[in-house]
Amino acid sequence: MTGGTVRLRPPNNTLDRRVIGWWRTQWLLLTVVPVAVLAVLGVLVAPARPWLLLAAGVVAVLGAAVTVFLPLWWYRVHRWEVTQDAVYVRTGFFWQEWRIAPMSRIQTVDTVRGPLEQAFRLATVIVTTASSKGAVKIEGLDHELAAELAERLTLITQGTPGDAT
């Protein structure tokens, strides 16, 4: 931020590579449940068996494709960076979103680790701002890096005067 403006540019940092496995596990879990329900119903409901088993097969194939390819794409797209002036995050798949949170607008910094994130030794840093758009999230960070980042952001924001606007 020079002279009161933040320059939009691609953030420099990638997520931890383990995020691919974390995302794949999430998609796999989201795929297995409907496939199992459709398959069980297909076995139990004889008149609808062909259609239910076909639906289970289609959901399984689509879910497997998404599980394999989508996390790789996300890994290439998702970026983050923290400077003395702002937190930059780029996320998305088809619709990419760039978010910039100026340090003067940051209200809280949290670190979250769900059960799957813990299994992959990952964490999410959530930066809450005064924006109506909501918090800026940096998912898929190594849990130690996330803790260091939260501490760094806290120190930077403590030394940053609030935004008067």
Overview of this protein structure:
With 165 residues, the protein is α+β, with helices and mostly antiparallel strands. Helix content is 46%, strand content 25%. Helix 1 packs antiparallel against helix 2. The mean pLDDT is 90.
Give a quick rundown of the structure:
The protein has 165 residues and is α+β, with helices and mostly antiparallel strands. Helix content is 46%, strand content 25%.
> How many separate helices?
4
Low-confidence stretches: none
Instruction: List the strand order in the largest sheet.
Output: 1-2-3-4
Number of strand segments: 7
Average pLDDT number = 90
The H-and-E topology, N to C, reads as: EHHEEEEHEEH
Strand content: 25-35%
Estimated helix fraction: 40-55%
Radius of gyration: 20 Å
Provide the descriptors you would attach to this structure in a database record.
25% strand, 7 strands, 4-stranded antiparallel β-sheet, elongated, 4 helices, 165 residues, alpha+beta, single chain
